[in-house]
Amino acid sequence: MTVTCGRVPTRLPPAPGLSMLLCIALLLTGAALRQIDRLHFARARPHTGSAAELITLQRTRANNLTPVLLLIGQWVQITGWWLLAAQSPLGAVICALAVAVHYRHLQEISHFAVHGVLARGRRANLLLAEIFAHHPLVLAPAVVRRDKHVRDHHPNATLDNDPNLAELRVAGLRPGVSRTRFAQALVFPLTASGVRATAGEISSNLSQHTGRWPRLAAALLIPAAAYAVGGWPALLAGALLPRLLLYPQLAWLSLINEHTWFDPDTRTGAPAWVEAGRCLRLYPANRLLTALAALTWLPYGDLHHYAHSTHPAIRWNYLPALERHLASPHFTPGALLIGPDSVLQRHRRALDAPVEKANRHLGTAPADNSAHRASRCEPSRAGIVDGSLDI
């Protein structure tokens, strides 16, 4: 709406009520778009099933349309949160937290893309990951992440040459770490060193890979769009704060929660038996905390990391069914932070009592082990990890 004061036209801001209605409409529309993918892959999904059964079903559902709608839905909702940030300081706080969660969701969706199971075909998977996640979030190219994650991490999880374990060590999580340093390492992305590391990573992703100019354009587009939608509150609370602080911290907590990093039970044998010794399953009996984690910092199958590590070629929709088919990992904590059996307390005890590689327990699967039985007829680990089962 434009009014004229003398000869100078003045554009009035949109009415608060209309802005809030548009915000709600965007949030609901985005949520609806995201559900299309979930409902499509939920059809005929068994309560429990072997990897071979689930991969067969997954192949019949593979498509490129519902993943695109899923990713568009994420950004439609982010736009709605940017509008909310302009409404009030409380709206800005909610926006910052919500957008950080959406960034985590985009990271996990792209994680399954580099495994080749988000869409149909390897090219489509990498393209969608780049357009909707890696370019706008200024992450490393999808092919770089694929090599680091699929080739370097999965076969070597918790071993000395695991790049993820190296990240934890850089943050200070090493044997003999002091209690103060341990506490600081848990919130490493929020510390001055962590912010410098995040900024350095963003700078590296913009300058050291091919396609520099499209990446730079995408990096500038997101803050510009946030400002255009919600002004300075959206720019600060809806773009910069989530990307530089909040999203990295959520991703960091997820990394800490993936494995028994510092005292794995090193084993040989079937994939389920091997992964049961170095993975964990958080909140195995608490449905409320399970739902909260799955909606926020452990989305899209990240809560089921043990099942994913056992068979990485399975889409997140089918990981709960696979998890029910497998025996439980050897560590199933009911808490992340507090309690003698929590994830962080276990990490702390392991670092208090350094374990030399030569003293680690080397286990072999007993003849009647249920995890071994559950995986004897599954596809080979090598074929899954290297992407040869991409859809």
- Low-pLDDT stretches: 356-391
Number of beta-strand segments? 4
What fraction of the residues are assigned to beta strands by DSSP? under 5%
Q: Alpha-carbon distance between the termini? A: 51 Å
Return Rg in Å: 22 Å
Determine the mean pLDDT: 89
Helix content: 55-70%
The major beta sheet can be summarized as: 2 strands, antiparallel
Helical run tally: 17
Structural class computed from helices and strand pairing:
mainly alpha
Order of helices and strands: EEHHHHHHHHHHEHHHHHEHH
> Looking at the structure, what is the overall shape?
globular
Multimeric status of the protein: single chain
Strand order of the largest sheet: 1-2
Describe the structure concisely.
By secondary structure, the chain is mainly alpha-helical.
Please render the helix and strand layout as text.
Layout: E1 2-5, E2 8-11, H1 16-42, H2 51-61, H3 65-85, H4 89-114, H5 122-134, H6 142-153, H7 163-170, H8 179-186, H9 192-207, H10 212-256, E3 266-268, H11 271-276, H12 287-295, H13 305-310, H14 319-325, H15 343-352, E4 362-364, H16 370-375, H17 381-385
Parallel strand pairs: 3-4
Antiparallel strand pairs: 1-2
Helix pairs in contact: 1-3, 3-4, 3-10, 4-5, 4-10, 9-10
Explain this structure to me?
This protein has about 400 residues and is mainly alpha-helical. The chain contains 17 helices and four strands. A hairpin with a 2-residue loop joins strand 1 and strand 2. The radius of gyration is 22 Å and the shape is globular.
